[in-house]
């Protein structure tokens, strides 16, 4: 065998889908010949496994026909393109993007928003999961009408529950109804990690995470466990809610989470009989806060009875009543969030390396001697600089 014979045999192998062969393309290199044993590398531009296999099969056949007794064809293909460019610690690597839904205050509609946005994402063709990370007050199972369904357990892994085109897991699906939970911070951290690691989530485009109210251990644990692609704050228009929402937005900043926007919920009331919109709690009052954090109000969701009944009856408004004003606005909000996530990924994604604990897991950085001996100039409420996120 000579190099000429090898090249001439390989020039009969067309690159799949083209009329040009792999030698003419310049893909063949590192030819080594030992008697009638031939080895070489083909460097291709496609990451599709079928392309690599076809080249391997045809090259082997062509060389055997030219007199080779053994053929070692090493096809080098590029890695599959990653649809998320985020980096850092990720204990659920099959999930491409994570959306943290937070609010400073309870009862403003986080769960309602998380669920309806998740359903709107699925309607856009995305593969979606919804994690109810409200460990003390899980409401999502009822809102999805699956509170009687217990998840399937496979070894020490749990399968998510499927409804309305999305995958879901909640503490409410894992425990008996009404069972009280009194957990400490370290246990919350463990629960969040288990929700991400031990639930058999599919290859998801996005996991929407409905957080408990406030800016505590659950938020920090999540940000340390996975690179959160974007944060969404839900608020109501009253000033008292806005004050708390500022804390939620500051938390995103401290945790290096890009802000996807603000949902102003219970923004006006649409009377079901007349369709007339009334201003109850105020409307558009979140705008100055959005400006302050260089973000936007991506939806004003009115108070609509069908939103509440949808939640109580397990028939989310975006699915059950897609022509309602709320459903339309949730759908627009989802499109806006997805556009933001695509832009974040195009710019290199996010990295949670900067919020990893500087102390052993479960120990608050603020309670360590190093933190308490921090310079006295630190004013009340200011971060201790450890990335603990608890300020
Ligand atoms: N736009 C709306 N119109 C009518 N009812 C609404 C609207 N948004 C939320 N609700 C209702 O308000 C209640 C509280 O909403 P939800 O449970 O989503 O709030 P939350 O912020 O998740 O509360 P928590 O802090 O307790 O988890 C629910 O009964 C829900 O159906
Ligand atoms: Mg909730």
Q: Nutshell version of this structure?
A:
The protein is α/β, with parallel strands linked by helices and about 400 residues long.
How does this model look, in words?
It is a single chain. By secondary structure, the protein is an alpha/beta fold. The protein has 3 domains: 3-76, GMP Synthetase, Chain A, domain 3 (2-Layer Sandwich); 98-346, Rossmann fold (3-Layer(aba) Sandwich), CATH 3.40.50; 359-391, no CATH class. It is 33% helix and 19% strand. The protein has 13 helices and 14 strands. The chain has helices at 3-10, 49-65, 110-123, 140-143, 171-174, 185-197, 217-225, 239-254, 287-292, 305-313, 317-320, 325-346, 369-372; strands spanning 28-34, 37-43, 70-76, 98-102, 128-132, 153-154, 157-158, 161-163, 166-170, 206-210, 230-235, 259-270, 277-278, 297-303. Strands 4, 5, 8, 9, 10, 11, 12, 13 and 14 form a 9-stranded mixed β-sheet that branches. A 3-stranded mixed β-sheet has the order 1-2-3, with helices on one face. A two-stranded antiparallel ribbon has the order 6-7. Helix 3 (110-123) crosses helix 12 (325-346) and helix 6 (185-197) runs parallel beside helix 7 (217-225). It is elongated and about 85 Å long. It starts with a helix and ends in a 19-residue tail after the last helix. Bound molecules: adenosine-5'-triphosphate (ATP) and magnesium ion (MG). The site of adenosine-5'-triphosphate has 21 residues, from helix 3, strand 12, strand 14 and helix 10. Adenosine-5'-triphosphate (ATP) binds at residues 103, 106-112, 134, 137, 139, 213, 265-266, 301, 303-304, 307-308, 311, 326.
């Amino acid at each position: 065998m000579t190099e000429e014979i090898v090249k001439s045999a390989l020039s009969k192998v067309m690159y799949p889908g083209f009329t040009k062969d792999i030698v003419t393309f310049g893909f063949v290199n590192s030819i080594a010949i030992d008697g009638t044993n031939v080895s070489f590398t083909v460097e291709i531009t496609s990451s599709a496994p079928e392309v690599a296999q076809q080249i391997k099969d045809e090259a082997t056949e062509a060389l055997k026909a030219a007199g080779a007794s053994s053929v070692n064809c090493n096809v080098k293909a590029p890695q599959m393109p990653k649809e998320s460019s985020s980096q850092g610690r990720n204990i659920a690597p099959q999930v491409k993007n994570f959306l943290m839904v937070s609010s400073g205050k309870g009862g403003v509609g986080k769960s309602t928003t998380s669920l309806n946005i998740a359903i709107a994402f699925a309607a856009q063709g995305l593969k979606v999961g919804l994690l109810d990370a409200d460990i003390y007050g899980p409401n999502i199972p009822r809102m999805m009408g699956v509170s009687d369904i217990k998840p399937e357990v496979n070894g020490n892994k749990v399968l998510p529950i499927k409804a309305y085109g999305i995958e879901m897991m909640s503490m409410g699906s894992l425990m008996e109804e009404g069972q009280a939970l009194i957990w400490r911070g370290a246990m919350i951290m463990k629960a969040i990690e288990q929700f991400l690691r031990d639930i058999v989530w599919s290859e998801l485009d996005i996991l929407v995470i409905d957080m408990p109210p406030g800016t505590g251990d659950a938020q920090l644990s999540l940000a340390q466990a996975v690179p959160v692609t974007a944060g969404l704050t839900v608020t109501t228009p009253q000033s008292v809610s806005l004050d708390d929402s500022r804390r939620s937005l500051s938390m995103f900043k401290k945790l290096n989470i890009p802000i996807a926007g603000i949902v102003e919920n219970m923004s006006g009331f649409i009377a079901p009989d007349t369709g007339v919109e009334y201003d109850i709690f105020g409307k558009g009052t979140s705008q100055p806060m959005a400006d302050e954090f260089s973000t936007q109000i991506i939806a004003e969701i009115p108070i609509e009875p069908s939103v509440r009944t949808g939640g109580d009856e397990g028939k989310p408004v975006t699915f059950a009543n897609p022509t309602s004003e709320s459903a339309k606005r949730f759908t627009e909000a989802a499109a806006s969030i997805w556009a933001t996530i695509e832009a974040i990924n195009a710019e290199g994604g996010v990295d949670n390396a900067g919020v990893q604990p500087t102390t052993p897991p479960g120990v608050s950085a603020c309670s360590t001697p190093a933190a308490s001996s921090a310079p006295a100039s630190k004013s009340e409420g200011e971060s201790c600089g450890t990335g603990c996120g608890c300020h």
